[in-house]
Amino acid sequence: MVTENPVADIVSAHIFLRAGSAYEKPEQAGISHLMATVMTKGTNRLSSLEIAEKVESAGARFGADSTPDYFLISLKTVSADFPEILELAGEVMRSPSFPESEVELERRVTIQGIRSQQEQPFAVAFAQMRHILYKDHPYAFSTLGIEATVSEMTATDLQEFHQTYFRPDNIIISIAGRITDSLAREIIEQVFGDWQAPAMPLPTLNLPAIPRRPVKAVSPQETQQSIVMLGYLSPPVHDPDYATMKLINTYLGNGLSSRLFVELREKQGLAYDVSAFYPTRLYLSSFVVYIGTAPDNTAIALAGLRSEIQRLVEQPLSEEEIETAKNKILGQYALGKQTNSQIAQVYGWYETIGVGIDFDQKFIGDTSAVTVQDVLAAANCYLREPYLSMVGPYDAVSNYLY
Fold first, then answer.
1. What does the pLDDT look like over 123-158, one tens digit per residue?
2. Which residues contact 155 (CB under 8 A, 6 or more apart)?
């Protein structure tokens, strides 16, 4: 996909593969993240230093990343250097060497990151929330994986994962910038045209079902604040209620003017931090509201979160509240498509998760069409029974342990 944008002499390319953490076996949780950290550290022809020198000499950006639903190779450079940097990306994608020393280094760094998360109250609470929401589904894990699996990963494991998912029939290339469609296609053909797909078909994902059984997870920790989270299984990106739930998320917890911030922090002084999030997911997503509060205020803060969710279930929002939320979400959405990199990301992402680039305009139309009754119906459908995750000092959370 090519979006010609001649305003600046920059070309961005985002190369997507359906190979994120949702594609990992349970015993290899975190392998796609580790691959992203190691993949740019060497090929069969180039060392890590030589790759870095090629990127730096062109003043380019080049990297890899892994998310729950996809793996990403991204690059940005001036248009004159685009063929050379894309050729480098092609080499990295097709023949990474996964040097043992680099694998060992990045494995240690990843384990340190996992351990660091275990010391952060918010990260602990969110990890608990993922596990009680998703049970055995890959979404239950951090993209970093877990220490038990990461510590056992080898360069051979990375090679096998690479051979399974890095193939020409599993990539989507999204380009934006000062480049014509015909030139982009010519360069792509030069870099990837001789790449043949293996005879073996891509593995079929057999993901476990996600049961809807709200439970709680409470961890006493000697922390300076309590973290309280309410979570709800929510629709994936292709669901008709997706835009409505995005609007509810914006209204409830997006920014300093959001309902949670105004009511629980500004008016009641309960929150160090308070917000909501609803990530875009290919499979069932999660709608989570959370508050960080003084331990003595734990019970009051939990009651405040419950009250605000219950208000959405029982009381229709006003037309003014709906319009304000629409203006905010559509304004933020427009701001997220300003640069070539953002444009390449949005279009490639939509194609990768199966909704197609037309979803760009569909989302705007669906959001604009949300009504008061749509919000009330969605709240009643998805926000009835919460999962509870809580982290805080024992005296503050002990009443919720049993």
1. 999 999 999 999 999 999 999 999 999 999 999 999
2. 98, 99, 100, 103
CATH number assigned to the domain with residue range 2-192, chosen from the 4 options 3.40.50.720, 3.40.50.2300, 3.10.180.10, 3.30.830.10: 3.30.830.10
| Contact call for residues 45 and 91 (beta carbons, < 8 A) | yes
| SS3 at position 178 | coil
- Phi first, then psi, for residue 14 (nearest 5°) are -120, 120
Are 241 and 220 a contacting pair, CB within 8 Å?
A: no
Q: How confident is the model at residue 402 (pLDDT cuts 50, 70, 90)?
A: confident
Q: Which fold has domain 216-400?
A: Cytochrome Bc1 Complex; Chain A, domain 1 (3.30.830)
Give the H or E element holding residue 335: helix 319-335
CA neighbor of 248 nearest in space, from 122, 389, 129, 367: 367
Task: Say which amino acid occupies 44.
Answer: N
Provide Rg for the chain, Cα atoms.
23
**What is the Cα–Cα distance from 212 to 284, expressed in whole angstroms?**
11
| Residue at token pair 């309902």 | 259
Quote the longest CA-to-CA distance of the chain.
Answer: 66
Distance CA 248, CA 379 (A): 8
Which residues are within 8 A (CB) of 29 and not within 5 positions of it... i.e. 6 or more apart? 21, 138, 141, 145, 146, 149, 150
Tokens linked to 59: 């003043």
